[in-house]
Structures
1.
Amino acid sequence: MRKLFLICLAAGLAISCSPQKPAGNFHEESMEAYQERMAWFKEAKYGMFIHFGLYSQLGGVWKGDTVWKYSEWIQSYKDISKEEYAPLIKTFNPQDFDAELIVSTARDAGMKYLVITTKHHEGFCLWDSKYTDFDLSGAPFDRDVLRELADACKKHGIRFGTYYSIIDWHHPSQQPNLDKESHWERWGKVSMVEGKKEEYVSYMKNQLKEILDNYDPSILWFDGDWADWWTLEDGIDLYNYLRGIKPELIINNRVAKREEFLRDYGTPEQFHIDSLVNFEWEACYTLNTSWGFKHGDNNWKQPDVVYEKLTEINKFGGNFLLNIGPDGSGRVPEESIRILLEVGEMLKNRH
């Protein structure tokens, strides 16, 4: 998959969008208009990724067993049914979530934008959505995390972005393939219930419009495009729908099939391109091992490593999106803050 991704990028498809250009008006966007829309993103260079959801309170541990890799995939690793997983909403109470601390840390670290997981694969929505009860309003918590972050970003001159997963382990339209052997085939490649796709696509569009209307993000960052039932055409349609609501919006290539559709920018994950290319891209990395908070995950990338990655990624024209994972109470690990601030000092001393 990585090889195909790089071949597609090398062909310059991030600009032309794909061999199948999007239907509608947006594929007619001139190079000048595209460059103008992407200008702030190209200049940003460095951003903060935040993985935060119900999984954060588990910290990668289920019934005494620790998951082997990413904590936000714990439902899939442990084959937890939606009926058993959903009650986690009743104990999700991130009273220590501090948007001011997070955003000011991003600013002092030299970051220019921020992207938070509004809905990861678990399906839990980190805001009060009109279209589901599996959202923040169902938790013993009466604050609007996204509003707090969006306001703090505006205050500190940081661009605000939101992540949204195409697959959804909670929504009744989808079900795991429990007869398959690997967790990826069971949960990563979750199946669409016959006759339910139109309902789910409408659900996604309604929620994404809700996010745009309520929080006005500069970026929509998609994931989960690998599902067999999600087609290139589906992604193009969603891309055009969202750009129709907010023409200046920047959307990553995972809105469709990432190997084919590369507008508005490519998204290598846990690796980066090491040559000059003629398209826009962003490499996302974890700061330790897991994206979501995980107990005992102390495999931190130290400041010199982060600085070197940032320097190399920027050298070849990419942005660096570096992740933090608050715990279930909303606290960001102190080591994350220390590392980010030290990198910020290194950047200040470079100029």
2.
Amino acid sequence: MNTRNIILVLLAALPSAFVQAETSEKESLQAYNARMEWFAEAKYGMFIHFGLYSQVGGVWKGKQIKHYAEWIQGNANIDRDEYARLAKNFNPVDFDADFIVRTAKEAGMTYLVITAKHHEGFCLWDSQYTDFDVANTPFKGRDILEELSQACKKHGIRFGLYYSIIDWNHPTQKRPSELGKKGRPGNTLIVDDRKQEYVDYQKNQVLELLKKYDPAMLWFDGDWAPWWTMQDGLELHRAIREASPQVIVNNRVAKRNGYELDFVTQEQHHFKDSFPKHWEGCYTMNKSWGYKKHDQAWKDAQTVYNKLKDINEKGGNLLLNVGPDGKGVVQPEAIAILQETAALLKEKPIQKNIPTITKLPGIKVNKPKARKKK
């Protein structure tokens, strides 16, 4: 093991009160604050969950599957090869990037994040590292990510990409049920000592996304996988920072319970009190992130407004989700909620309490308390 790797192991093991994240060692506070300036002022963004799961809408072989629609492969224990065949019919011909981004702009949102690759492993871009992507579907020839990127530039919206650390399709990983073991459907286990193979694949894809689309943000998820370590996250974050000094990365690139760079992500709940660093609360508009045809439990505009106000006044941003259906259409109920919330914002503008950052965040000292969803 070389000296640098030894340092990383020690960083991951030492109490956080004594260490600073390796990715930020060479960055000044001034540079960090400059990179985070737009996020600090952002207030409100749009999350888009879209993938193969959008076609089935939470239903598998006539049965409604409980919980999040984008988790249907895991929750319904669907064979990976059978699930992958959904790609043969992926053809969201009605996806309208300009309409979606214009809607976000009119709603008062200033940034947007789309799931470039969710846990299912399907890639919404033509990746040179896999055939399990949009280029091998009836939709080939169109690039949703580029369409959104261009629309964001047109309307003055920051463009972000979501990337899942776990991958239910990649041959280096298997869900516990595939190995005859019990465990959370969203977990994966590395098989046959092939972790480095996947880590290389993942890094190559992330750098590919940076090169192709130059996003303002990378939004990671799936850090709960038992094989993904703090050290792995620090390594990936360092590679990202070297490739793009300006891209903002959420804390789930490493272990969310111990990492705070570049910003902290709260999901379906948010902090009870003001939090002194950059953070974001992400919420669904109904009960699911991905499109779920039977989910009509919509939040009303006043509820969304209240969450936005509470989050902004505590120093955070609200990232509010939409889930287009298999044709690429955002549900009219979601559009109506965005429009009605925008009307409330015009009537009662919200002032964000922007945190003053005086020390670079990294591996945190204390776990913040979060308020669970009521």
3.
Amino acid sequence: MPRTLVSLNVSLARPIVIDGREVLSGIGKRGVSGPVELGPLGLAGDEQADLSVHGGLSKAVYAYPSEHYPFWQTVRAQARAAGWGDLLAPGALGENLTLAGLLESEVWIGDVLRFADCELAVSEPRFPCFKFNAAMGFRQVAQLMSANGWCGFYLAVRVAGTLRAGENFELVEGPREVGIAELFRARTTPRRR
């Protein structure tokens, strides 16, 4: 099965209200068509509100597997019955790249995603926060992400260029010392005393 960039997503940071307070967020990204410029700090037209958790050189781009969307669609549909908005479109989980054919269990720190005109290096897993819960509509979302290990991963721009939805990419293996799923579980699993 080819590995494909299903959707290329960007968003400007905007104020949202969470638990009665206003915060900036760029989580609700929308798909864009045509080529999009990719520089060292990410995609043209994309912003991050809190650079301590997303953005900068090592977390310039966030990728998420499309294979997890059916689960989130089902969970969201159940929450919708309780009054939580529409079903999810690619980018709704905050990802810049919605990918097909590459799961967290297949990705290691230092692996490279080679596209036709650019290269992105895997840097770390994404860890969910209160904004993710708010975007999805209920507080247990971060717990579900942690329980399933469906975190997606951040990428550093190794070779700048352009990206386009629908293009295929190659996974070039790095040193294979620390896996994304392994690192995510190590940081999200409660320690026993």
